[in-house]
Amino acid sequence: MSKHDGVSISVIKRLPRYYRFLGELKENGTVRISSKDLSAKMGFTASQIRQDLNCFGGFGQQGYGYNIESLYNEIGKILGVNSNRKAILIGAGNLGKAIARHMSFESRGFNLIGIFDKNEALSGQMLRGIPIRHIDGLYDFCRDNSPTVAVLCIPSSAAEVFAPQLVELGIKGFWNFSHYDISAHYPNVAVENVHLSDSLMTLSYHVSQLD
Fold first, then answer.
1. How far apart are the first and last CA of the chain?
2. How far apart are the C-alpha atoms of 182 and 37, rounded to whole Å?
3. Long-range CB contacts (within 8 A, 24+) of 20-26
4. Is the torsion defined by CA of 165, 168, 170, 176 positive or negative?
5. Which 3 state secondary structure label does DSSP give 54?
6. 16 vs 8, 59, 73, CA distance in Å?
7. d(CA 9, CA 135)
8. What counts of helices (H) and strands (E) characterise the chain?
9. pLDDT band at residue 59 using 50, 70 and 90 as cut-offs
10. How far apart are CA 78 and CA 112, in angstroms?
11. Is residue 180 within 8 Å of residue 160, measured between CB atoms?
């Protein structure tokens, strides 16, 4: 059982934003900040910030506020950014290549160790300093290297095929860009779904409210 059981998903989803803002403040040399000043920068109320952080024990001091470096490090621990979990990426098409090239996995708790695709023409090409392997080598690679996270940049039909294999091979978490509902079939693994089309349609809604 997680020590943070009972914390709402909405609070958890706000933690990366706290981490990012605090990191920027830390880089700028700011030492401490009040919940009021932090709320002005982030768009949350001071009360919301205090409530969110109290879910994990609370880190402020009355009359002082928050020590930025300390709070940044504590939220980093909660998020597991220093965990260095081994990850693999399935699907080296345009989306997979963009994610591999531009996502800073290492600063977010992951070590990308393998990239796979069914296209034989891609085999041996280097991406992010990692050779693209044919998908047929997935089993042996996972057996030898024990990754625990998979990034799926493949269609839902392919994800449906590979999800059970990956779970059997020890994958505990999926960053899922496919539309396949992994959680419905494997409730004991962690899944973060990324629906780019949903996000775009949400933007369409918000813009339409301004018409």
1. 48
2. 40
3. 22/68, 22/71, 22/72, 22/75, 23/72, 25/68, 26/68, 26/69, 26/72
4. positive
5. helix
6. 14, 16, 12
7. 34
8. 9, 9
9. confident
10. 21
11. yes
Residue 199 in tokens:
């996000």
Residue percentage of the chain with pLDDT more than 90: 82
Average pLDDT over residues 148-173: 97
CA distance linking residue 59 with residue 77, whole number of Å: 13
Residue showing tokens 């496919």: 178
Token representation of residue 33? 């900040």
pLDDT in tens, 6-39: 788 899 999 999 999 999 999 999 999 998 999 9
CB atoms within 10 A of CB 41: 12
Residues 6+ apart with CB under 8 A from 152: 90, 91, 159, 162, 163, 174, 175, 176, 177, 178, 180
Residue 118: count other Cβ atoms within 10 Å of its Cβ.
Answer: 14
